[in-house]
Amino acid sequence: MSAHLKEILDAKALTPQPTNDGIRLREKGVMEVQVVNPPPDLTTVAMKKLGRLSGMKDGEWTQVCDYLLVYPRKGKDHVIFVELKKTLHEGRGKAMEQLRRSLPFLEYLRSVCEIQFGGEPVSRRIAVQYLLIGERTRSRLDKKQSVSPDPARKLEKQDYRNIAVTTFVGSRVRFDLLVSQ
Q1: Which residues contact 157 (CB under 8 A, 6 or more apart)?
Q2: In the prediction, which pLDDT does 64 show?
């Protein structure tokens, strides 16, 4: 599906291919994170550039996450929904909901690929992950918050309304660390 998305999506919805430095995921005016050592066949979709169905009313059902990362591995398509927040403590509930409500967009893209390219994109299994990345956990530093957190403690998993969301705090992360969770 990764290669098929590159064929059907407009260039403005795709971020540049991974380089030696990795990929940069950014939400303008909010934050930027550097993901190092991504797989070369990774497709990164800026979800907000996809737009939405024009006939839908405004509401929570139109919320989407910031990025969709798609890559093939071991006969499956792996998908990671990514939401970026400057401060996790204050924006966590809305961020979790944005991640949860992004799944229908994946199903839509998968259906478009099936119609355009035949049955292979849909017949492959898909592994879905949800990832919330923040620059910091609180708007102000408190006495209990470490100034330079241990990288092993940066990843935390939390269940939210039938999805498991991995949370990462920082502005630089290895791709393999994200997908090993």
Answers
A1: 164, 165, 166, 167, 181
A2: 92
